[in-house]
Amino acid sequence: MTNGPRPRLVYERWTDPVAGDILEVADVDVRKLDLTAPDEQGWAALESAHGYQVATRTDVASVAGGSQWLAGRDLVTRCRDLLAVCSAGAGYDVIDVEACTQAGVAVCNNSGPGAEAVAEHALGFMLDLAKKITVADRRLRSGPLGDRLALRGSQLMGKTLGVVGLGAIGGRLVELCAPFAMDVLVFDPYLDEVTAERRGVELVSLDELVERSDFVQVTCPLTSETEGLIGKAQFAAMKPTAFFITTARGPVHDEAALLDALVSGGIAGAGLDVFHQEPPRHDNPLLHLDNVVATPHTAGITIEAAHDIAVATATQWQTIFAGGMPPRLLNPDVWPRYCERFNAIFGFRPDATTDLDKVSEQGSHVT
């Protein structure tokens, strides 16, 4: 036990109230960031915070000047006591990782708990597009049905699935597609041949993946490496019968190039959960194409996922403030500097081997 300050955590919203319940028991001073309140109020909370559960890009999009509440260089510089920032889900494009690392701030995400929800959503897109479910529904509701054979779809059985990024979501999608006996191609620079063989997938270049796949599924995070990864050349190389599906982040693909491919018949259709601008404007031309099925970044929003993400989020903050290494630390190079800053604030050094269960039994180091 130490006489250090009570840890303060600022959050914009929880995916489920259970996160607040867990942190209340952990004796963390939790403050809500009200995006509609005067800026001074938000900065007052953040400038004294030790942790920040970062608002999502969609949350801040509807608020004037809302981007200031993302964990960019200006926010990190201004909030001098900030020790750690965490994104709500697997994606962490709302955080400037380089700026945080330079400032000694740990960066975490919540990959894993929402993987099932997103993978099922991606599979849903595949079935919807192939079977023309949404197209048929629109036709049935809009007037005389006409010739039913015009709504003839295709099957997933025996087709080729191309996955861009075999993380938790992509890996689970591959498992879900197993009953369809699909050939699975994967482009992932961080995946080795041994792991690929063990998981029953073929590791290929991006060029080969887009040329051979019947379904191109993008499940990678948005980083400097992946921004603009799928562009005009990739869409041009796809089969005219192929479908493009993304549950990643909008800027991973070129939206204008996608529109051209869809309008020209270069590809058969698209399933989109993410856009460059979120929520997308109603006049976004992609939303007015019959061969597009779209959802407003809701792939990971299920009752089960919201609960599991909230528990994982709160547990990770418990670990951080108890002096352990965050289980989903994205910038491990920050650890030595982070430990120094943590010690200066709370009076003890974090330990990467800290067992949260033991901490719970013995009482937190921070009071």
Automatic annotation (TrEMBL):
Q: Give the UniProt keywords, A-Z.
A: Amino-acid biosynthesis, NAD, Oxidoreductase
Specify the protein name: D-3-phosphoglycerate dehydrogenase
Please report a single Pfam family linked to this protein: 2-Hacid_dh
Which organism is this entry from? Mycolicibacterium moriokaense
Signal sequence extent: none
Q: Domain of life, per the record?
A: Bacteria
| InterPro entries linked | D-2-hydroxyacid_DH, D-isomer_2_OHA_DH_cat_dom, D-isomer_DH_CS1, D-isomer_DH_NAD-bd, NAD(P)-bd_dom_sf
Coiled-coil residues are none
